[in-house]
Amino acid sequence: MAAVAAKVAKDRAVAEGLGTYENPVKYLDQDYDELRAKCLASKTLFRDDKFPAGNSALGYKDLGPNSPKTAGIEWKRPSEICEKPHFIFDGATRSDIHQGHLGDCWFLASVASLTLEPNLLARVLPEKQSFEKNDYAGIFNFKFWRYGEWVEVVVDDLLPTKDGRLEFVQSAKGDEFWSPLLEKAYAKVNGSYEGLTGGSPIEAMEDFTGGISETYDLKKAPDDLYQIMQKAVKAESLLGCSIEIKNPKEDQALTTRHLVKGHAYSITGAEEVPYKGKNVQLVRVRNPWGDYEWNGPWSDESSEWNDVDPKVRAVLDHKADDGEFWMSYSDWIKEFTRLDICNLHPDSLTSKEQHKWSTTMFNGNWIRGSTAGGCQDYPETFWTNPQFRIRLTDPDHDHDGPTDDPCCTVIVGLMQKFRRRQKKLGEALLTIGYAVYRVPEEMQNKTDIHLTKDFFQKTVLTARLSKFTNLREVSKRMKLPVGDYLIVPSTFEPLKPGDFLLRIFSEKSAVTLEVGNVVKVDPFEPQDSELAMTKQIEDVFQKVAGDKSAVTSKGIQTILNQLLSKNPDLKSNGLTLDTCREMVSLMDMDGTKTLSLTEFKTLWLKLQKYINIFMKTDKDKSGSVDAFEMRLALKDAGFSLNNKVLQAIVQRYSENDLTISFDSFISSLIRLDTLIKMFILLDKKNDNTITLNLTEWLCAILA
Q1: Where are the extended beta strands (E) located within 203-343?
Q2: What is the mean pLDDT of residues 120-143?
Q3: Cα dihedral: 489, 491, 496, 502 (round 10)
Q4: pLDDT digits (tens, 9 = 90+) for 625-646
Q5: I want to staple 505 with a disulfide (CB 3.0 to 4.6 A). Which of 102, 298, 337, 357 is the partner?
Q6: Does the pLDDT at position 615 exceed 60?
Q7: Which of 475, 487, 495 is nearest to 514 (CA)?
Q8: Mean pLDDT over residues 204-228, rounded?
Q9: Which structural domain, as residue segments, surrounds residue 632?
């Protein structure tokens, strides 16, 4: 219950603006300004008790406590490593990034690329941090985008060293510390330094910017890839490319044209140039490390430039001395094997030009037994996955579809959350993906209905990822005709729990929502005309009630179990005393903790309704129902619930094998009925809101 309350509080804070860049979440509740002020006032240097310098910060296996790789490591502050440390000296550049003994080259490649974008780098490295005497308190802060929200992360400046030298990333001269401190902050949010081992540069770039990534295998490049690149450059997206290596020996090896294998390059331009009577598609590439440049056609000193108009040549500025060079698109797509595009969220940008993406984000969960339905190969459970709707009404201004079927460009990204932190627990990345369906016109206004198995059996798939993949994020650029679509994110196999972030980027604004996110309730209430009972049932009640004409929870249990035992089609071990107490709480309107005959009659009619639903759902007559069947069973009982409530019910009432017994089934319905009745009574203004003081809250929950 505490976790649920914390989640509700967090959701409310987010709705009020928490998690924006201007109002970031304080990671682990550590406030940089407060901690720094406290250290300055006490004249002490900050020590981070949430990420203490020691074995746990280093790792759990290869960098674990007994690993030879961690033997001899000492944690030192910059002033103990060099005579005059700087946070940043003469600007943050790629020369400040030299990889140490940690397999995080993917992270450092993104950092190097980010140094080429000072405005974006400044958002990650907040200003006014230094080692100057009056400002220095041994504490530094950084900002990362993490799963839909910006977080402020603080670290102390105790860094792992061996023989007096930094063990991990360091600057060329060894006296600038923004990069090792940034690395430490990123290690903190990922659980440890070892948590940074292995990854893709695009992952870190997303965490630096909040952008959404696309990855293209250039051996299978779409025909319009060059146009996609041009659009991305114009929209100030970040583009990177690399040459795949087939074995470790090829890493950093030079090709005959002076390109480095296994190396992350940036793409800074895509222009068509008039050349000998035709247009040539060019790509401008930059080596963040500045060591080698392409020496083929269209390189800095190549003869092709002699046949280009001098004015065009001057605009392109093809001669650069910082590792930047041009090459033809045809050569580029032959030489390189992978393209990454990080499309930036408008919040990440400083430009005011109106060519940015419209974005929507949804946080969700795959919970065993309720919303972890697996992919389409599992039709019995696929429909139970979370569902999201998108309505596309405005086509791209330059769409290439037929005039009677204009298209909209959409990028859908599905990101699984917190998996790096779980590596030390043996948890690997889930295999994830999503499917897209076009919603028929007759169903377009039914956004409150979670679509069932019948819909997916009858509806043809519109789009999907080429395959489910065990990456942090999977994404796809799609051109969809104007219309309504349903997006279903899932793991490949059912019953795989995890948290996810679904992001939808569209060139024009789109209407998006989570399907069935509104709770609607209409529980069954017997009418007075239905309260007639057989003399046999009345006799059973009177026998237990005696001369008191009312029965307690224990008496209710006796009566109901006698009646249920006479139903040959119901397989049940009876109702527990706790469930019967729930019934008394629901029906007892006079506070006596007992039920009169009239109250019992109403209860019995409710139970008959619920028993019939249970028997209908329990098709194999096992005496229990599968947890994933609860959504439809609850709907039959008058409860249309969203994923959050459904997940809470399944987690509370299901067994380890994800079945729900008859007693638990009845208990869940009675509990729901009670809570709804309680809410309605307390909602005096009928505005779907109640306010309780602490005493009222405790009495309501404990009743």
Answers
A1: 212-217, 238-242, 265-275, 278-286, 324-328, 338-343
A2: 93
A3: -40
A4: 999 999 999 999 999 999 999 9
A5: 357
A6: yes
A7: 487
A8: 93
A9: 528-702
496 DSSP 8-state letter? -
Residues 94 and 189 in one domain: yes
- Establish whether 612 is a catalytic residue: no
State residue 554's pLDDT score.
95
What pLDDT is recorded for position 611? 94
For residue 438, what is the domain's CATH number?
2.60.120.380
Residue tagged active-site, from 105, 241, 375, 580: 105
pLDDT of residue 400 exceeding 60: no
Residue where a domain terminates, one of 458, 488, 518: 518
Q: What percent of the chain has pLDDT over 70?
A: 93
Q: Averaging pLDDT over each range in 345-359, 393-407, 530-544, which range is the top one?
A: 530-544
Catalytic residue status for 365: no
88 shares a domain with 149:
yes
Q: Is 101 assigned a catalytic role? A: no
d(CA 327, CA 332): 6
pTM above 0.90, yes or no: no
150 occurs within a structural domain: yes
* Domain count along the chain: 4
120 and 251 within one domain: no
The answer to whether the CB of 75 falls within 8 A of the CB of 158 is yes
User: Which runs of consecutive H residues, i.e. helices, occur in 532-661?
Assistant: 535-545, 553-564, 577-587, 597-617, 630-636, 643-653
Q: Of 86, 190, 241, 263, which one is the catalytic site residue?
A: 263
Catalytic residue chosen out of the listed positions 190, 287, 385, 643? 287
Q: Are 263 and 171 in the same domain?
A: no
The strand pair at 25-26 and 149-156 is best described as parallel
106 CB neighbour count, 10 Å cutoff: 18
Q: Are 552 and 593 in contact (CB under 8 A)?
A: yes
Does 13 map to a domain?
no
pLDDT at site 457: 94
